[in-house]
Design brief:
Jelly Rolls, single chain, mainly beta, 21 strands, 2 domains
Length: about 325
């Protein structure tokens, strides 16, 4: 696994990504490209368009002029940012995968239409590369620019199961000038930079957009058998003052922590934001905080172990 895959998938549907247009989706829908999870497959499941695939598949190109062209799909990143790597997954496409592909990126602010995106200035971040069938292909990207959209080009046609666009979130926080915001939100540029344990699920899940639909969409640790407690460290979207903490244990019925505490960090200094406080299972908890000290990081300690669906830390940037 490439090291960049530990970064958020900026294109993921559950993080707000969308496949806004494609040249063709005759056999399998373009929206599958950015679905969460591994692609599935069940042999001999035929519909009106042929074998059912969990991916995007185009028709066979035919051009009497001898220049068949290529297919493409436009993806709006749910979280704009700096792209560190791309994964093109042809899982289950064995006789119908594209022999090669390339990826371009663009930065288009606002809410552009597909036509406006096609007319935008695109930068090649992955040159034309060969693909294999039923395989994950990892490509590092060395571009420091911030992008809002990507375009997957397949040459000339075929099927791709998933497109992953891993990178560092770079939001436009000027929208919140004079307003409060969730300083711990992944969408606002926060990250979980360290945690004690991620046996069952990734700690970044705790700061993902939206509500967790089930316990796997939160953060859950293994059962602790020794002394101590589990914890995670959140780098905030920016230095700020936190006024309200939300600790959500929704869906965690028998594996919620017994209690939680919050500690703010600012350089070498520490401040207790929330003393050790009892939690209930399957419950969203909200706590007003009365420590106006600005911090850059927050350590969330859970006692002794368990899981959290979401952590929200509302406040103001300094």
């Amino acid at each position: 696994m490439s090291c960049f895959t530990t970064l958020p998938d900026l294109a993921l549907r559950s993080l707000g990504g969308s496949v806004v247009a494609a040249s063709d989706e005759s056999f399998a829908e373009k929206e599958s490209l950015i679905r969460p999870g591994r692609p599935g497959f069940m042999a001999d499941t035929f519909g009106s368009k042929g074998q059912v695939y969990d991916g995007w598949e185009t028709r066979r190109r035919r051009d009497p002029a001898g220049s068949p062209g290529h297919d493409w799909a436009l993806v709006r990143l749910g979280l704009p940012g700096v792209i560190r790597g791309v994964v093109i997954d042809t899982a289950w496409f064995k006789g119908n995968y594209p022999p090669s592909a390339s990826v371009e990126a663009a930065s288009v602010e606002g809410y552009p239409s597909p036509a406006e995106l096609l007319a935008a200035e695109w930068v090649e971040i992955v040159p034309v590369v060969e693909l294999k069938g039923d395989a994950e292909h990892h490509f590092e990207v060395g571009d420091e620019r911030r992008y809002t959209h990507v375009r997957l080009n397949i040459h000339p046609d075929g099927g791709v199961a998933r497109l992953r666009v891993h990178g560092e979130v770079r939001p436009d926080l000027s929208l919140y000038e004079g307003l409060g915001l969730d300083l711990a939100a992944l969408a606002n540029g926060a990250r979980v930079t360290a945690c004690s344990n991620d046996f069952y699920s990734a700690p970044d899940n705790a700061i993902a957009p939206g509500l967790a639909r089930h316990q796997a969409e939160g953060w859950e640790t293994a059962r602790r058998r020794g002394e101590g407690n589990d914890w995670l460290l959140i780098r905030l979207a920016g230095r700020g003052v936190i006024r309200l903490a939300e600790i959500d244990t929704t869906n965690l019925l028998f594996n919620a922590p017994g209690s939680v505490s919050l500690t703010g960090l600012d350089g070498e200094s520490e401040v207790e934001l929330l003393p050790r406080t009892r939690l209930q299972p399957d419950t969203p908890h909200r706590f007003r905080l009365d420590r106006p000290s600005p911090v850059t990081h927050v350590r969330v300690d859970i006692y002794p172990d368990g899981g959290l669906a979401r952590v929200r830390l509302h406040g103001h940037l300094t």
